[in-house]
Amino acid sequence: MNESRVREVLSDLVRIPSVNPGFQGGQGEKEVAAYVRRFLERLGLPYEVQSVEPDRDNVIGTLAGRTDRCLLWEAHMDTVQTAGMTLDPFGAEVRDGRLYGRGACDTKASLAAMLVALETMKERDMLPAVTVRLAAVVDEEITYKGVSALAELIRCGGLRCDAAIVGEPTKLHAIIAHKGVLRFRIETIGAAAHSSTPEKGVNAIERMADVIAFLKRYAAERFPASRHPLTGAPTLCISMIEGGVAPNTVAERCLVSVDIRTAPGQEWEDVWADARDSVASFVREQGWPSGASVVVHRPFLTDFAMEVAPDDPLVLTLMAASNTYAPGRVAVGAPYCSDASKLTRVGVPTLVFGPGDIAEAHTADEWVELAEVVRAAAVFVHTAMHFGE
Ligand SMILES: [Zn+2]
């Protein structure tokens, strides 16, 4: 692998701002998409552009292999915001073998490794065992519209895809299972009164306190049964709370946000419906006074959990490649979500793999170790050359 070339491509990518437009001042992925298109054009590789939103396109390049079977490499082009960063987010400064900047680790390092891997195979006339498609997609950091559009294209037969690697910082381990998420709000409604005569009102905050205590007991009792060997059991977190209008008024309303991380095998619809029904029966059993009620709102954000079999050919090929260049790499589970779940959802065996440490993602001085990006590029080449053999 050409180390200086990896450094050059990653520097180029980090120097192009691509903060997700969902963050204040976000430029979007447009210029990175243009860079990827130029890169593929220069190599003479065909590509298609999938429009996701105005000025937000997925770019899908193809390197033909010995068969039509297709291995997809997917990486998102957007980054999180740059507020609070302690260094130039777009400087791509290199110190002690580390390249610094927003997206350096999450996930421009993966995209750079994929681009250089494609370039290496093309320029050396290496014919991969399967056709390789590189999909640089938009909008992973907020609502995964990019991969969702890509998955829909695969589902309806518009793009062949037999296996996929999603590039995210995993320190060259393979994530073969990860959790899903559902976030919803619960609202309690009571009746206002002067706080000197609280018995004349119904305190929505105090009712919510009971609901929260119930939810914690409920999760502790119910969730261990859904434990997955690689991701662990589902979790529940009350992540936001608001309620009341004045210090001397009984609160008429209280609202919390609930974040549940589901394990592979669970469907968010079932998890949400069970939580809703359980809260309702708790409230009935507690015998709330008339005028007090609880509403469990439908989720405002959901994502699927995912898993791929540990002995899937994709996992075996990737692990062999990874351990060739970086010994000691293992297949593991993760508690967070990624684009991979949208691909497994349409039947594509998918794992998550890439250079960098997830602990560095979204940080004030985000960096990635260049040597690891070089090793990742070698792993991508090796996997393409041997997958399906
Ligand atoms: Zn990412």
TrEMBL record:
Gene Ontology biological process:
lysine biosynthetic process via diaminopimelate
Q: Sorted alphabetically, which Gene3D superfamilies does this protein's record hold?
A: 3.30.70.360, Zn peptidases
Q: Which reaction does it catalyse?
A: N-succinyl-(2S,6S)-2,6-diaminopimelate + H2O = (2S,6S)-2,6-diaminopimelate + succinate
Which Gene Ontology molecular function entries are recorded, alphabetically?
Answer: metal ion binding; succinyl-diaminopimelate desuccinylase activity
UniProt keywords (A-Z) are: Cobalt, Hydrolase, Metal-binding, Zinc
Q: Which residues form the Peptidase M20 dimerisation domain?
A: 176-279
- Looking at the UniProt entry, the stretches that span the membrane are none
- InterPro entries listed in its UniProt record: ArgE/DapE, ArgE/DapE_CS, Bact_exopeptidase_dim_dom, Peptidase_M20, Peptidase_M20_dimer, Peptidase_M20A
**Which family does the UniProt entry place this protein in?**
Belongs to the peptidase M20A family.
For this entry, the protein name equals Probable succinyl-diaminopimelate desuccinylase
The scientific name of the source species is Paenibacillus ginsengarvi
